[in-house]
Amino acid sequence: MVPLYQSEISPLEIRGRIISVQQCFINLGILVAFWIQYGTSHINGQAAWRIPIGLQMLPTIALHITMYFLPESPRWLVQRDRVEDATRALAKLHARGNINDAYVHAEVAEIVSKLQWEKQNPPPTYFKMLFGNERRRTWIGIGVQFFQQVTGINVIMYYAVFLFQQAGISQTQGSLLANGIQGLVLNIFTWPDMFYMDTWGRRRPMIIGAIGMAISMMLIAVIMKTMGNPYYNSLTHKTDFHFANKSASNTTIAFVYIYVFFFAMTWACVAWVYPPEVFSMNMRGRGTSMTSATNWFVNFWFALYIPTAMDKISWKLYLIFMALCFIMAVVIYFFYPESAGKSLEEMDFLFSPSRSIWVFKDKEATKVGAIFERDMEHGEALTVFDKASGGVELVEHDRQGSEV
Question: Most buried of the four, 152, 287, 361, 385, by CB within 10 Å?
Answer without folding.
Answer: 287
